[in-house]
Amino acid sequence: MQGTVESQETRGVIDHHHEHPDFRVLGLLVFLISESLMFGGLFAAYLLLRGLNEQWPPEGTEVELLVPTINTIILISSSFVIHYGDVAIKKDDVQGMRKWYWITAAMGLVFLAGQVYEYLNLGYGLRTNIFSNCFYVMTGFHGLHVLIGVLLILGVLWRSRRPGHYSAHQHTGVAMAEIYWHFVDVIWIILFTLLYILTRF
Amino acid sequence: MAQAQLPLDTPLSLPEHPKAWKWYDYFTFNVDHKVIGIQYLVTAFIFYLIGGLMAVAMRTELATANSDFIDPNLYNAFLTNHGTIMIFLWIVPAAIGGFGNYLVPLMVGARDMAFPRLNALAFWLNPPAGALLLASFLFGGAQAGWTSYPPLSTITATTAQSMWILAIVLVGTSSIMGSVNFIVTIWKMKVPSMRWDQLPLFCWAILATSLLALVSTPVLAAGLILLLFDINFGTSFFKPDAGGNVVIYQHLFWFYSHPAVYLMILPIFGIMSEVIPVHARKPIFGYWAIAYSSLAICCVGLFVWVHHMFTSGTPPWMRMFFTISTLIVAVPTGVKIFSWVATLWGGKIRLNSAMLFAIGLLSMFVLGGLSGVTLGTAPVDIHVHDTYYVVAHFHYVLFGGSVFGLYAGIYHWFPKMTGRLLNEPLGIAHFVLTLVGTNLTFLPMHELGLKGMPRRVAMYDPQFEPINVICTIGAFVLAFSVIPFLINVIWSWNKGKVAGDNPWGGLSLEWTTSSPPLIENWEVLPVVTKGPYDFGGIVHRPVMDEDDDEDE
Amino acid sequence: MEQIPASIWTLTAGVVITLISFWVGHNHNLLPEQASEQAPLVDDFFDIMLTIGTALFLVVQGAIILFVIRYRRRAGDDGDGVPVEGNLPLEAFWTAIPALIVIFLGIYSVDIFQRMGGLNPGDHAMHTMGDHNPAVAVVAAAPQTTATDAPPLLATKTNSVPEVGIGASPDVQGKMPDLVVDVAGMQYAWIFTYPSQGIVSGELHIPVGKDVQLNLSARDVIHSFWVPQFRLKQDAIPGVPTELRFKATKPGTYPVVCAELCGGYHGAMRTQVIVHTPEEFETWLSQNQTMAAIPSPSLVASHTAALGVTPQLLAQVAAAAQSPQPVPSSDHI
Ligand code: HEA
Ligand code: HEA
Ligand code: CUA
Ligand SMILES: [Cu+2]
Prior knowledge:
The structure holds 3 protein chains of 3 kinds.
Chain A: H1 3-8, H2 24-52, H3 66-90, H4 94-121, H5 130-159, H6 172-200
Chain B: H1 33-62, H2 72-108, H3 116-124, H4 126-135, H5 152-155, H6 158-188, H7 201-232, H8 246-280, H9 287-301, H10 316-328, H11 330-344, H12 353-376, H13 378-384, H14 388-418, H15 424-451, H16 465-495, H17 545-551
Chain C: H1 8-27, H2 38-70, H3 88-116, H4 134-137, E1 165-166, E2 179-186, E3 189-194, E4 199-201, E5 204-207, E6 211-218, E7 223-227, E8 232-236, E9 242-247, E10 252-258, E11 270-276, H5 278-290, H6 297-300, H7 311-322
The structure holds heme-A (2 copies), dinuclear copper ion and copper (II) ion.
Transmembrane segments (chain A): 25-49, 69-88, 100-117, 137-158, 179-198
Protein name (chain A): Oxidase aa(3) subunit 3
Keywords (chain A): Cell membrane, Membrane, Transmembrane, Transmembrane helix
């Protein structure tokens, strides 16, 4: 539109167009409802399969706990770290935000590396048995989400090189990356409980 | 009058405002919701023809009891892709994507959707999905039915089946993106002067639909991902000999696909609530009852999925629980039906094509809904499950319901979309052929099913041949019925009578802008002073009345 | 607004609709003959729903037609209709009536389902013991019924008696079925094994009036065992044992239809159930017991010859019927 139309909008009518408030955060939240149900479907399938099989996990499949626990601690703390970044940007401290976001991205990558390490050293593969099927598909799917989260954070960092791109008043992108990261974290906590803790105890 | 600045003068030619879209804009990644809406509608209709062609091939095969027209595996590929295309590439994209995108911003007084680029992306996921389905025929085509139950789906035509899964995941993603968009748009972007009780019922319907799609689609995606792994990566989620379980797939599938049937009817209900009051010249009867019943259908609809599994691996308590929950859905649906009938009462009903299709829907859908209720009870469903009785049920609600509703919507809003009216005599011919064809094709199927003919068969007991011949003739009538419609649309789009901004004298906001609307919908955003259904009292003088008189 | 017409006309219409509905409900002729104890139960229920459905359909349809005729726009009339926006009592009425109907149907379904035996699958737990370990009963559906030959359907706790399907109806609850038949579905045939009698057959033979229990299993994909005249259907699911328990009430030959899509020749997966008089059944038993019947191609799918089923397919089915392995799946690991 532009030009003519905008100039006509002078009769006290609220223009809803370009300047409409930024709904991206809201959109992301709505989208995350959907995402969590996707995981919900996987969790439901997992719990049903678990209920239908007498031994869970099947004989000879030992769930290893050390690396995943370290990984969990890293991922959960990264949620706090990224929050500092958010606090920083709200104070207009772009450098501070960048610092915390870098750390978060690094922690995410460490988590992924830990995941890969675990995959390489487990006594079972994707096809070994029904538990390992679930294990790899669910953790793999979550890992994909962590990767997306890291890419979002890197995207924020890339954009924040330009001075003024983010500020105390304009940091939707920063907030979105943070929300997504928290989401990934929450899903991990459920996954960790289901796949590791509840199979050991 | 309803809204401010409702322009009622008859233009002599199409408004030549400078910023109209050109034809080639419809082939691009355009972010205007109106372009996207029309892209959806046209693409979906093309898929409808393709899916219909498959149906015609199936009906030709079924004209005789033996398998003599096409190979039985090809028959299964046709039936799978017929169901899939009709549901995922015709009804859902046309009703939600097409009408939803075109109308919601216009109805709430917004210049576009909340996330225009996401919107365009959502549309552009559809053509590749369709292409995948069609290309899968090179590998035999998916043959396990649109439900794709394992183990059949994991052992037959696996490449085609994987392509099928990818196609569904694409349209599923599209539908989730669309839902996010609709929810935010309706929730946040209606003009401030519009109260919630002035929100057109179509928008309520789209809101309810979007919520439903949002929570059910991802569960299907989860199920399909597991299926994909089973087919291609050697996992055994649904392989019983390795600890898997085939019934889990059915739960995941129907948890989505039952709500999916409401995805296909709720927007149509929304169209009904717009078309009927305008052409009956009456306020809608029971605004809140209709709005809330959509939400009620959504909520209850999430807890009825096992009625598709009454003869499957489900324990007795489940069969009973879901019998009762299924029956409950009849109540809010009935409220809607009765409210529309009551809207007709005391009206000044104009029996044009849009209204005829709407009234046709009322009758056909009720029949389908009532047979749905009989299916909802486990004792009867045990007999008729997976028979032609079910096929009859769902074509009555899907064809007699959704397709009739889409046609009603097209006749109603075509003038808004193109600035020209559709031809009435052709429209009426289209309606009569469709009505006759629908009943000829699908009514006898009830008897087939009750008497013992299972569905999804290319070859059947010869005793059923006579009835099948009737159904096949009906299918040809239906195929033929498309011709007057196509001629009508193509001709009227170019040469039809100029409609003017508000040919029907509608009161919702989309009628306050020009036809077709400006690129940014309004030069000045409208101010709502009255509700969308405030007919009565004031005498309107819709432009088309003079022409109507000649016909009568 | 006008009063809701409560005139003599409405009354007449009501009576007429009621009469028509009852007539339709009782004379529809849409269901095949009844040959099991469950069939009349289902049919009565269906008739009632058809009656209610017809009445509702006529009411809605009648109202639409009446209104469309009475309130159609007359030429030259550009006005609007009556500005009615709702009517609370009326709306309450048409919410309450369907709600009541639905509650009634819900309760009635549970009752019918209970009388059909739908609430008691698995009731026979101790009864199959005689010649058969219940734990194997379900997996032993393959023609050669030694436990080792049985396909390893599920090494899990579903390896037990069926808990799914139609079980003992109230009059036989807690009793042993008179006859147990293991039914195995495979692409594209049904194999019936009589474990106590040592018979394997491509057709189901049962005595009239006896309490028969079918243990359903599937070798490859899901099939569904349906006898329209019995009004009974139950999926045969790989890995999930299911059952159907019933009494046939009428001697005769009825089709057994596979109702779940199971591949290209799903439509040809048909055979027969022959309901014998007790004497005939004894004869059949003694004749077949002697020869360790292995289904021949013609036996397995003799009823599908006219349907374009190739001889190769028949041979393949017969071979599958004899092989202990589940039909190969594409676990291309
Ligand atoms: C638009 C799509 C649509 C809609 C709206 C419906 C609506 C309903 N459907 Fe249907 N259904 C399908 C599409 C749809 N269905 C499809 C595609 C399948 C097959 C899937 C497959 O297997 O491939 C299917 C299958 C299906 C089954 C499974 C059958 C089987 O496989 O064995 C059942 C069983 O309960 C069922 C029930 C219902 C019910 C109770 C409703 C209700 O919502 C209907 C409510 C409406 C009314 C009842 C009429 C109006 C109300 C009144 C006039 C009030 C008074 C009424 C009473 C008091 C009864 N449907
Ligand atoms: C909205 C959904 C929808 C619609 C509109 C239709 C429309 C039709 N359907 Fe279909 N149908 C389903 C959804 C739908 N169906 C589903 C979900 C299934 C279940 C699948 C499964 O079991 O998995 C099914 C299954 C199904 C069966 C059962 C198959 C079986 O179980 O073996 C049959 C059989 O008669 C059938 C017939 C028809 C017919 C005759 C039409 C007619 O209305 C079609 C009319 C035809 C046209 C409108 C085409 C006209 C085209 C031309 C004249 C050519 C021009 C073409 C080009 C230019 C390309 N359908
Ligand atoms: Cu076996 Cu269909
Ligand atoms: Cu359903």
